[in-house]
Specification:
The protein is 37% helix and 25% strand. It is globular. Strand 6 and strand 7 form a beta hairpin. It is an alpha/beta fold. The chain has one domain: Vaccinia Virus protein VP39 (Rossmann fold). It has 7 helices and 7 strands; from the N terminus they run ααββαββαβαααββ. The longest helix is centred in the N-terminal third of the chain and has 22 residues, at 20-41.
Length: 206
């Protein structure tokens, strides 16, 4: 299976944008809500969401928090900007940006939220390095993602590999390799959807 390229990811999500909420919202909402609630419980001052998409989580973050949201898809980001416009009292700043080359200084954010992004970025290790760089020491990183299941899911994952690049999705995504091997502290891992295939992972940086 080839990894998704940056251009294939942009094309895919630009194409999905008009129907993204109706197509993927029912699948992703549970994870986004759980993630946003977990972020809000910490009462952070400054939040970064990587892959803000259409802005589904914007209204769920604390009102007093400063929120930066980035996405690589201009069409998706335009929808997020419309949602942000409906929250005029919030400090929300949105930008087109490559998550593997973040345009923020080191140690900028109290929390970094990464919903459904890690398995669609071309280089997950590079994204991880970037979110750790911009998250302050002992800050928190929240990852919601698909992780490969056991024998029950091995056949569907194999079938998806042939079209993964076209849909911008890496079907075989190993939890141990992409989460446990890094020298950060995993605080919790909670299933959020589809028999545990999607999980919310809460991490302390540093």
């Amino acid at each position: 299976m080839s990894d998704p390229s940056k251009q294939s990811v942009i094309r895919t999500y630009d194409r999905y944008a008009p129907i993204y909420d109706s197509l993927f919202g029912p699948i992703q909402r549970a994870g986004c809500v759980r993630m946003a609630e977990s972020v809000a419980a910490l009462e952070p001052g400054h939040i970064l969401e990587v892959g803000i998409g259409t802005g589904l989580t914007l209204s769920m973050y604390p009102e007093r928090a400063k929120v930066n949201g980035i996405d690589i898809s201009p069409v998706m980001l335009r929808q997020a900007q419309q949602r942000a416009a409906g929250l005029p009292s919030r400090d929300i700043r949105l930008a087109i940006m490559d998550a593997e080359q973040l345009e923020f200084d080191d140690n900028t954010f109290d929390c970094v939220a990464v919903p459904y992004v890690l398995s669609v970025t071309p280089n997950p290790d590079k994204l991880v390095a970037e979110i750790r760089r911009v998250c302050r020491p002992d800050g928190h990183i929240f990852i919601v993602n698909h992780f490969s299941g056991g024998k029950l899911w091995s056949l569907p994952e194999r079938l998806l590999r042939s079209v993964a690049d076209k849909i911008g999705f890496r079907s075989n995504f190993d939890y141990d390799h992409h989460i446990l091997r890094h020298d950060w502290t995993v605080l919790s891992t909670t299933p959020v959807r589809l028999f545990g295939l999607y999980r919310l992972v809460i991490i302390r940086n540093g």
